[in-house]
Specification:
About 80% of the residues lie in helices and about 0% in strands. It has helices spanning about 5-35, 40-65, 75-80, 95-125, 125-150. Bound molecules: fe (ii) ion. It comes from Novosphingobium fuchskuhlense.
């Protein structure tokens, strides 16, 4: 582990963010698989697109941790211990409740990315700092799309 406190804080923040990406990925897939109702087709496809976006960043974030000299997540248990995204194991969740939950979760993710960017700035990690802007743009696009469905 690096000795620098700012780098340690960055690693910790990135690992929390990574856990959120994994948790939101599986939650979005859960909804992709289980959504029902007149908007089934659109939501089934939208949730899949968003899940693919989320999953694509997991490797990127984990490797930012390794490039900073830290260790990253190792298991489902590690993900569960670090994520702030709430599971939704209920059956028969209303389609619009799914949309609202993902909107809120992606908005929470925007805040977690902002914290990661600030930690990157503090640690002098310009690469993570720059990448975080793209992560934010993607998350805000998901929030926008989901919000627009709700009217
Ligand atoms: Fe699928």
């Amino acid at each position: 582990m690096p000795g620098d406190n700012a780098t340690k804080a960055l690693i910790d923040t990135l690992n929390g963010l990574l856990a959120d990406y994994f948790a939101l990925y599986i939650k979005t897939k859960n909804y992709h698989w289980h959504v029902k109702g007149p908007q089934f087709h659109d939501l089934h496809l939208l949730f899949d697109t968003q899940a693919t976006e989320l999953f694509a960043l997991t490797d990127v974030i984990a490797e930012r941790v390794r490039k900073n000299g830290g260790n990253t997540l190792t298991s489902i248990g590690a993900i569960a211990g670090r994520s702030v995204i709430a599971d939704d194991d209920r059956e028969g969740v209303d389609a619009m409740a799914m949309v609202a939950a993902l909107r809120d979760d992606n908005a929470a993710l925007v805040a977690r990315i902002r914290a990661a960017k600030a930690a990157a700035t503090e640690a002098g990690d310009n690469a993570t700092e720059g990448m975080a802007d793209d992560w934010t743009d993607q998350a805000q696009q998901r929030v926008w799309f989901l919000s627009s469905i709700l009217g």
